[in-house]
Amino acid sequence: MSDLNERMVEFSSDGIAVTAYLVTPTGARPRPAIIVIQEWWGLNEHIKDIARRYAREGFVTIAPDLYSRLGHPVTTNSQDASRLMQTLQQQDGLKDVAATLAYLKTRPEVDSTYIGITGFCMGGTYALLFPCVNSGLKAAVPFYGQIPDPDTPIRTLSCPILFIQGEDDTWITTAEVQRLADALSKYRKPGEIKTYQGAAHAFFNDTRKDVYRENQAHDAWARAVSFFKQHLHA
After folding, report:
1. pTM for this structure?
2. Which of 12, 72, 69, 64 is nearest to 33 (CA)?
3. SS3 category, 108
4. Rounded to an integer, what distance in angstroms lies between the CA atom of residue 206 and that of residue 59?
5. Which one, of 50, 62, 63, 55, lies nearest residue 27 by Cα?
6. What positions carry a catalytic annotation?
7. How many other C-beta atoms lie within 10 A of the C-beta of residue 216?
8. pLDDT exceeds cutoff 90 at 104
9. pLDDT digit string (tens) for 64-95?
10. Max CA pair span of the chain
């Protein structure tokens, strides 16, 4: 892959060794960066592919393995994935995302002024919650993540968000997303919500033909890239 440099890296988070997939475009200039957070399946090839796609758009991209504390498992079994997600303590996950951000800021390829975050399903939850507890980001694009209940974390949201959801999502329902819209208004936080008709949970995942929706996924990708380029000055 001549246009990209990709490697696995390791850094410490509260004494735990976290591994991550790092992708950088070729060229010497410091670039804005994006943290990509996995679904509950683990750090699989789909998430790595998304990281490469963002790198081709000009971003340094890193996908931390949030299951590093659990032995780096990757699964395709939903029961195993649910167990892994429940086993990972949210505060530990947030620590590991914070360590990922700190690591990015040490990389010479990164313009540390402009870093964003995105994530899917479980990762969407972290992509929404992390900028509520850390002020080091300039943009967030959560895909169908859980909405905090109560909504008080949104009060400290520190960057603009683009929240992406499918209308037919039975996990993150339209009523849940309305709570987010209400919280953004209540706390006067900058945010956009895009809901796609005919799309279920995980509609962006092109490795899951049962839920993937090509047209909606392509539009969501274009919106996400545009949002990041606007706010990360890429």
Report:
1. 0.97
2. 64
3. coil
4. 21
5. 55
6. 121, 169, 201
7. 21
8. yes
9. 999 999 999 999 999 999 999 999 999 999 99
10. 47
